Amino acid sequence: MKSYNNYLMDMDGVLVRGRTIIPGAQEFIDGLNARSIGYLVLTNNPIYTPRDLAHRLQTLGMQVPEDRIFTSSIATARFLKKQLPEGKAFVIGESGLTDAIHGVGYIMTDHNPDYVVLGETHGYNYAQITKAIRLISAGARFVATNPDPSGPSESGLEPACGAMAALIEKATGVAPFFVGKPNPYMMRSALNFLGAHSEETVMVGDRMDTDIVGAVSSGLDTILVLTGVTKREHIAAYPYQPTYICESIGDVELPEVKEKKRPANATVARREEKKSNEE
Fold first, then answer.
1. Which end of the chain is more exposed for a tag (fewer CB within 10 A), N or C?
2. Residue 277 has pLDDT above 70, yes or no
3. Are strands 20-21 and 16-17 parallel, antiparallel or unpaired?
4. pLDDT-derived band of residue 122, with 50, 70 and 90 as boundaries?
5. Is the pLDDT of residue 34 over 80?
6. Does one domain contain both 174 and 196?
7. CA 122 from chain center: how many Å?
8. Which candidate, 157, 111, 162, places its Cα nearest to that of 135?
9. Are 254 and 35 in contact (CB under 8 A)?
């Protein structure tokens, strides 16, 4: 396996499965830290802030700093800032989205906004959806954090951003711009955030239809792990293929740790410098 300077990786299905750490995941993160290799954990989950997600992982026994977590909410906020700095937006979402949008200098309002931004909430509000439909019909641009139609909960599947976006699109005739995976914008935004180049970076994911296709579209090499959604027998059906296939993230090969060697005369030089200073 080729050595890479940077790693992007999905969270659910790669590092954790529900409330269980996937074997080898923490060791892989530790390996990246030991080698000073850049990395980001990418997630389409727009509900939580990176600090929230870092705490969630910590409660499971996994240590990932918040500055190593990149969400679709962060990517959406960066997209808005690049398109229209210091704009206004009507936002449907939780703190992960509202904090990110406030953080790029946006005003959140329902009075003549430039954008309607749809994320996910713990309970969609009919009045908010109606307001969004009316604002989009009046000319506000429609942006959504991620196209996932549903997501898991402790009680079972729940409607997610993609499902609500379809409802609004049906009512307005206006299709949203989805920022999250598989949109290559999510990958490119993460690369810029990390200060990395696509040719030196690999994406580790568990889904062919989001992680892998988004990375392929962005010019990244890819590693598909089989601990999530995509199974080995499904891979051949896709027109694009991963660069590597691993059973789990614990099987991803990292380069050997290089020991830092001191020059042969380093000790002598320090002694001579100390002696000179004493004189």
1. C
2. no
3. antiparallel
4. confident
5. yes
6. no
7. 20
8. 111
9. yes
List of residues 6+ apart from 247 with CB closer than 8 A: 225, 226, 227
d(CA 14, CA 29): 12
Q: Based on the fold, state whether residues 190 and 166 are members of the same structural domain.
A: no
The average pLDDT across 185-207 equals: 95
Out of 1-10, 216-225, 267-276, least confident range: 267-276
Same domain, 80 and 172: yes
**Prediction pTM value:** 0.88
- Please report which helix (H) or strand (E) contains residue 244, including its range: strand 244-246
221 carries an active-site annotation = no
Residue 244 has pLDDT above 80, yes or no: yes
234: how many CB neighbours lie within 10 A of its CB?
12
Instruction: Compute the distance between CA of residue 240 and CA of residue 86 in angstroms, rounded to an integer.
Output: 39
Whether 164 and 195 map to the same domain: the answer is no
- The whole-number pLDDT of residue 157 equals 72
Of 12, 52, 114, 148, which one is the catalytic site residue? 12
Among 10, 99, 148, 206, the active-site one is 10
Cα 40 from Cα 66, distance rounded (Å): 10
pLDDT interval class at 159 (50, 70, 90): confident
Say how many residues make up the chain.
279
Q: How far is CA 157 from CA 70, 152, 250, in A?
A: 24, 5, 29
CATH number at residue 242: 3.40.50.1000
Torsion, Cα of 253, 184, 38, 64 (10° steps): -90
C-alpha 5/C-alpha 32 separation (Å) is 10
10 is annotated as an active-site residue: yes
